[in-house]
């Protein structure tokens, strides 16, 4: 039937038409009938009437126009223009409908024409900067199939890449899309090595490398899987320098980046692991994991493997990473007989034929175990352990391969962190024994099929857990060792043998260790490794244990026949009493407090605390009670990381509440800020740095209680709100003490990171500009406090305001040493574009000595400003409230502006024009300078013609100005340049003549210009004679 035919999808006869498809088609049919035989004006009236009648009518007309744009390429522009005409909700319905199509499990069935039109529509909507369109980009990036070399998939990957390249400036404003795009195309690059895809691969390489260089911090949120993907491409020449910088010179990537250790210790969020499975793939995989019982999953898994993995073996890695860290079973599933993750993983492993893919899968399976901390989610490591335990009798070669590979990875993956990884692997084992994931390692160790090499690996990795008592119990229960169920019958076992897994000469990229290219002593390497110690029995210490052992995120096992119900206590003689969290010894706390060092992790690039004024322990604990200890403990837990968002928010609330208690005592006592900062600077910086990209800079309240419970606020918000509250009080000592503390915090941070404080300072006060009506009454005092902050923070007592801003802006030099970077302003611009333009007018108004004429500041403004903000800046400039260029205009900046993006060029000249408009002497001085005349002779002025004409329109046509305009026309050798400048002068003279026909200077200029044109040897120039004549006609 006609109604069952889809114009959006290529469907088989037995497949039902999508409901949204039917709805859109029906609306479009109705729309076509209503405009049949109508004129353009009548259609326009019908659209306006329909869109204004009701919400339902508006939805129908928008849906109809969208359907027409998707299915009729020849009329797409007309339909889009009509959509723009009737738009009442900022394209909200259009975005919603397109997002449904982009995230649909049938996306791969879209007709090529429909998909092309969808991308065209997204391009148009992105150009208009429509809200919420970033969600469509995320869905489309997810629809790129890893390992799929079909023309349909590669063409789509290419089209989406072009779209991202075309809207690069827009992309830079959306860190979430940047990270997903980098993760997606980094994964695609190794698959596109064939000759016919080499051009696509080169384009992907250029896109990814440039994006990572420009937005490294946005990419760092990917976590440790970013390192894994970079290893896969590290042999490609374009990535070699990036890989070298990551290992040896991390500051080249970003002044705030601490090195590869930071990435390796950061778990990859689920979002990035999910993005490599299309919605269709994830839907089918979750059906197996959430609905099929153990023993009944093989057929569905076989279909899944045959459809998605048969010709795309590299996709195994993405599936394994998703199963390990991208999805976790609920407590209900764990207590049922639904097939466990490790069973599905085992079936997948046994179907792999390619040894390179097998090696990459192994590292994907144990990757999170290498860097496991006690506060990490135990679900990261549960599948690999259960796979080894349950395979010991039926598939002993899997147990052998995984155990030996785990040992190999600990020793060779990244040698500088070898000791740290050993402790992380042991920590993971201890937690699994505590939580009852397995009862003991001895059944594996004593299994008759376990090889000697496997036992040796177990001794090397887990010797504290191979006790004689456990050995005796294991011998009595050797026959009860759990087993793996049968696999999906796809192919025979073909994984590498244990000997091959660790000694093959053809070691795949992801299996290759990260090279230690730094020449450091053994002592230096030990200092770089996170501090994790062992007690006398070998149990791990230095991690924070959660109080709630029943927390679902830790390990939500209930009673079932596949898991042992009794938990075997770990081999640790120092267990705390029941119901009490494991505590750090008091003397250790005192030592940590006095040293001002956190026990969290990552001491590879420690934050330098330069103060010597440290409180003694008796003073500290008598004065603050346990507030500082609780503050440091909560911060350590936050830095260690939480998968459970609720637990993370709980620890942040504890840290903020403890900080408030500390500040309350500090403001009442005669204690220096430098002494207190020695014990808090590192934690405050680490938390602020960690939450930088996700921090919500909107201030919701000036009440500290509200800030503490608000999950979007962090420690710096507590400090700044306390300062703000103190500033509003009559007591002058409180603001002084807070400035003493903030200055000490700034001084305690390494020079390369101090701009973070400046950025947070200005972002805090920028957020108040829209909420405080009396901003002019307090901004002067805030800037005076800022002078105190920077002068004391950089050890420049009594420094002037201009010098202070210079200090905070010149925190770091760019890599070519061509001059200072406006680091704190650039950082603020990256995290909150709106705030930078709330702050800039204040900087220009209250700090004119440094800001006026600052070339880097003008470039930053031009690169980040949007039209409405530009209009506000122009109005402030023309009102005489601020200046950007000052009395001495930098013509080098104007010359360089022609090499920038068109919008940036126009912005710079619009700001200059606004500053000069109506100022006769300055206009004449600017246009009459030799540098300006040379610029007009050599640069193409078409882009800035409106700005120049608006500038000349505000000036009086004096003899000097008219003569200067004639001098702007270059010699006859530059024909095209002459034509542009002649048109500029003709337009200016025409305007002046209309308002002052009797002016002799204008008449003389017209006559001079007419003679010049009439006698020009070039015919195209002489054609302007008619334009000259029309001036006086």
Poorly predicted regions: 468-480, 487-512, 515-621, 807-822
Major sheet size, sense and barrel closure: none
Secondary-structure class: mainly alpha
The backbone outline, from C-alpha atoms, is globular
Q: Determine the N-to-C terminus distance.
A: 70 Å
| Helical content class | 55-70%
Number of helices: 57
Portion in beta strands: under 5%
Mean pLDDT level: 77
Number of strands: 0
Cα gyration radius (Å): 34 Å
Notes on the structure:
This protein has 1033 residues and is mainly alpha-helical. Among the domains are: 19-213, no CATH class; 271-465; 615-749; 944-1032. Helix 3 (55-71) runs antiparallel to helix 4. Residues 468-480, 487-512, 515-621 and 807-822 have low confidence and may be disordered.
Lay out the secondary structure:
Blueprint: H1 19-34, H2 40-53, H3 55-71, H4 76-86, H5 92-102, H6 112-127, H7 134-142, H8 151-166, H9 168-171, H10 175-188, H11 198-214, H12 216-220, H13 224-233, H14 237-248, H15 260-264, H16 270-274, H17 279-291, H18 298-308, H19 315-326, H20 331-334, H21 341-349, H22 355-366, H23 382-390, H24 396-412, H25 418-435, H26 442-445, H27 452-462, H28 468-476, H29 498-503, H30 522-528, H31 586-595, H32 617-624, H33 627-640, H34 645-668, H35 673-677, H36 681-690, H37 704-709, H38 715-728, H39 733-748, H40 755-769, H41 775-793, H42 801-809, H43 823-831, H44 833-846, H45 848-851, H46 855-864, H47 867-878, H48 891-897, H49 902-916, H50 920-928, H51 930-938, H52 945-953, H53 959-967, H54 975-995, H55 1000-1014, H56 1019-1022, H57 1025-1032
């Amino acid at each position: 039937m006609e109604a069952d035919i889809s114009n959006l999808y290529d469907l088989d006869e037995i497949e039902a038409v999508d409901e949204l498809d039917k709805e859109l088609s029906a609306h479009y049919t109705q729309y076509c009938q209503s405009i049949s035989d109508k004129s353009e004006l009548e259609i326009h009236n019908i659209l306006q009437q329909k869109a204004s009648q009701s919400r339902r009518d508006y939805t129908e007309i928008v849906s109809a126009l969208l359907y027409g744009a998707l299915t009729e390429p020849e009329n797409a522009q007309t339909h889009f223009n009509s959509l723009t005409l009737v738009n009442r909700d900022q394209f909200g319905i259009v975005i919603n409908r397109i997002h449904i199509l982009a995230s649909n499990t049938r996306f791969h069935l879209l007709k090529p024409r429909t998909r092309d039109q969808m991308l065209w529509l997204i391009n148009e909507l992105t150009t208009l900067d429509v809200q919420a369109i970033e969600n469509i980009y995320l869905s489309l990036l997810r629809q790129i199939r890893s390992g799929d070399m079909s023309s349909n998939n590669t063409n789509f990957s290419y089209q989406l890449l072009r779209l991202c390249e075309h809207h690069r400036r827009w992309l830079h404003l959306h860190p979430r899309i940047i990270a997903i795009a980098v993760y997606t195309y980094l994964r695609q690059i190794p698959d596109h090595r064939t000759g016919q895809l080499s051009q696509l691969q080169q384009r992907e390489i250029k896109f990814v490398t440039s994006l990572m260089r420009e937005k490294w911090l946005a990419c760092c949120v990917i976590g440790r899987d970013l390192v894994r993907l970079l290893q896969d491409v590290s042999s490609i020449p374009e990535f070699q320098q990036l890989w070298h910088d990551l290992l040896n010179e991390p500051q080249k990537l970003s002044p705030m980046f601490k090195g590869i250790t930071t990435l390796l210790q950061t778990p990859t969020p689920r979002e990035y692991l999910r993005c490599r499975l299309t919605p269709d793939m994830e839907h089918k995989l979750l059906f197996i994991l959430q609905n099929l019982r153990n023993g009944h999953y093989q057929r569905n898994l076989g279909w899944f493997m045959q459809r998605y993995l048969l010709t795309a073996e590299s996709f195994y890695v993405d599936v394994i990473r998703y199963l390990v860290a991208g999805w976790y079973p609920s407590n209900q599933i764990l207590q049922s007989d639904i097939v466990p993750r490790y069973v599905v993983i085992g079936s997948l492993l046994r179907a792999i034929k390619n040894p390179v893919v097998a090696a990459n899968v192994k590292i994907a399976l144990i990757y999170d175990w290498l860097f496991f901390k006690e506060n990490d989610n135990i679900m990261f490591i549960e599948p690999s352990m259960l796979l080894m335990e349950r395979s010991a009798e039926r598939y002993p070669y899997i147990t052998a391969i995984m155990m030996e590979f785990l040992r190999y990875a600990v020793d060779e993956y990244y040698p500088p962190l070898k000791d740290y990884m050993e402790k992380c692997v042991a920590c993971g084992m201890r937690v699994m024994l505590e939580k009852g994931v397995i009862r003991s390692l001895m059944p594996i160790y004593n299994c008759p099929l376990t090889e000697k090499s496997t036992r040796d690996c177990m001794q090397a990795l887990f010797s504290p857990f191979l006790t004689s008592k456990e050995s005796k119990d294991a011998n009595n229960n050797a026959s009860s060792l759990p087993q793996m169920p049968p696999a999906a019958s796809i192919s025979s076992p073909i994984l590498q043998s244990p000997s091959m897994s660790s000694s093959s000469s053809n070691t795949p990229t992801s299996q290759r260790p990260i090279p230690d290219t730094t020449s450091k002593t053994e002592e230096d390497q030990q200092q770089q490794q996170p501090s994790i110690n062992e007690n006398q029995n070998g149990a791990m210490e230095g991690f924070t244990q959660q109080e709630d052992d029943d927390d679902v995120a830790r390990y939500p096992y209930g009673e079932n026949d596949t898991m042992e119900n009794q938990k075997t206590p770990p081999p640790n003689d120092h267990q705390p009493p029941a119901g009490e969290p494991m505590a750090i010894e008091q003397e250790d706390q005192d030592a940590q407090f006095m040293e001002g060092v956190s026990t969290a992790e990552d001491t590879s690039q420690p934050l330098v605390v330069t103060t010597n004024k440290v409180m003694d322990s008796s003073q500290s604990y008598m004065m603050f009670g346990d507030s500082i200890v609780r503050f440091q403990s909560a911060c350590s837990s936050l830095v260690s990381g939480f998968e459970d968002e609720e637990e993370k928010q709980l620890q942040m609330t504890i840290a903020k509440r403890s900080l408030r208690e500390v500040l309350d005592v500090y403001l009442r006592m005669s204690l220096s800020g430098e002494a207190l900062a020695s014990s808090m600077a590192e934690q405050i910086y680490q938390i602020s740095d960690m939450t930088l990209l996700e921090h919500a800079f909107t201030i919701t309240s000036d009440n500290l209680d509200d800030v503490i419970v608000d999950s979007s606020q962090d420690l710096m918000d507590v400090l700044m709100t306390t300062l703000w509250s103190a500033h509003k009080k009559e007591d002058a000592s409180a603001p002084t003490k807070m400035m003493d503390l903030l200055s000490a915090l700034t001084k305690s941070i390494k020079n390369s990171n101090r701009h973070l404080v400046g950025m947070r300072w200005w972002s805090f006060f920028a957020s108040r500009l829209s909420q405080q009506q009396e901003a002019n009454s307090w901004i002067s005092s805030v800037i005076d406090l800022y002078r105190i902050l920077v002068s004391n923070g950089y050890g420049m007592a009594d420094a002037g305001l201009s010098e202070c801003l210079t200090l905070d802006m010149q925190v770091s030099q760019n890599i070519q040493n061509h001059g200072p970077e406006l680091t704190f302003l650039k950082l603020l611009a990256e995290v909150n574009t709106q705030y930078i333009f709330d702050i800039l007018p204040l900087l220009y108004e209250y700090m004119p000595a440094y800001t006026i004429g600052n070339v880097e500041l003008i470039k930053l403004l031009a690169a980040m400003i949007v039209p409405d903000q530009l209009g506000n800046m122009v109005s402030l400039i023309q009102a005489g409230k601020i200046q950007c260029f000052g009395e001495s205009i930098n013509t080098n900046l104007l010359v360089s502006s022609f090499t920038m993006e068109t919008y940036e060029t126009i912005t710079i000249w619009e700001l200059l024009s606004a500053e000069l408009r109506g100022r006769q002497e300055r206009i004449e001085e600017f246009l009459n300078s030799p540098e300006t005349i040379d610029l007009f002779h050599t640069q193409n002025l078409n882009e800035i013609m409106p700005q120049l004409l608006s500038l000349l329109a505000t000036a009086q046509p004096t003899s000097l100005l008219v003569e200067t305009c004639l001098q702007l026309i270059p010699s006859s050798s530059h024909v095209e340049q002459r034509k542009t400048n002649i048109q500029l002068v003709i337009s200016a003279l025409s305007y002046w003549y209309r308002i002052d026909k009797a002016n002799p200077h204008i008449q003389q200029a017209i006559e001079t210009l007419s003679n010049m044109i009439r006698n020009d040897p070039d015919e195209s120039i002489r054609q302007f004679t008619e334009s000259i004549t029309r001036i006086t006609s």
